[in-house]
Amino acid sequence: MVTDEGKENTDAISCFGYCKDCGEMHELPSELAIPHCHALMAELAEHRRIDFDVALEDADPRLSTDGLYTAMRGRMFGILVCQDAEGKEVILRAFSSRHNGVWNVSGWVPPLVDEHRFVAEVALGNLDIHPLTDLIATLPKESKEWYLKIAERRIVSHGILAKLNALYEIHNFRNEKRSLEAAFYLEKGIPVGTGDCCAPKLLNYAAIHHLKPISMAEFFWGKETASGHRKEGGFYASCAEKCQPLLGYMLCGVNNPIQ
């Protein structure tokens, strides 16, 4: 499993990252999670929605998977196999980002951020960004003032992103908690959407609820990406840009006894 081509290799590692605290590479194998991923694929194919645990008459139309086959294309889904304090198996599942704008869906792990605080911060940021965007549209392109306002909007945008990143709380398996900025391994800028992928959601939930991760696998579902690098049913490693710089910190202590 888990190659760029999505070919299945049950000995592969999909979830890994370097931890700058302990200087070690932490990882989770994929083998045990793969059958659960195939079971989830079967549910998605049969029901064509992600709230398949509820009766059809109670289904939320926003949670249909039809949108994954449009120009918006598909998304990643993930499974984390855990053990609780009694050694019982616990299966967690996650979808990346939001599904048709929906953050929280019963039966799926929640995001790392409070959606109401996030939406409120975005709304405040728009009060600063939108007037600048409207003003820029009225200026002669490539004029001195145009360039100045472009630079001003970039500074405002970076400030808004910093405030949004500050809303994220990143947990690991040493009972530690950090901000997104403090947990991110690389010193370059944090990409938009960091923390919203399947692996961080799954690990964060497990850490908070004192579950011991055993195996993780992630697959793509829906219309293939424009580049063709991700196809429906293919298994892929956690992304190098957003996830791996977080996963080293998040996986630290993963082999410790459950507390």
Explained architecture:
- It is a single chain.
- The chain is an alpha+beta fold and 259 residues long.
- Helix content is 32%, strand content 17%.
- The strands form three sheets. It has a three-stranded antiparallel beta sheet with strand order 4-3-7, with helices on both faces.
- Strand 1 and strand 2 form a beta hairpin.
- Helix 2 packs antiparallel against helix 3 and helix 5 packs parallel to helix 6.
- The longest helix has 24 residues.
- It is globular and about 65 Å long.
- 35% of the residues are buried.
- The N terminus is likely disordered.
Write down the oligomeric state: single chain
For the terminal residues, how far apart are their CA atoms? Answer: 31 Å
The counted number of beta strands is: 7
Describe the biggest sheet?
3 strands, antiparallel
- Helicity, as a percent range: 25-40%
Topology:
Layout: E1 13-19, E2 24-29, H1 34-47, E3 75-83, E4 89-95, H2 115-138, H3 144-165, E5 169-171, E6 177-179, H4 180-183, H5 198-208, E7 212-221, H6 244-251
Antiparallel strand pairs: 1-2, 3-4, 3-7, 5-6
Any key phrases for this structure?
three-stranded antiparallel sheet; about 260 residues; alpha+beta
Quick recap:
This protein is of the alpha+beta class and 259 residues long.
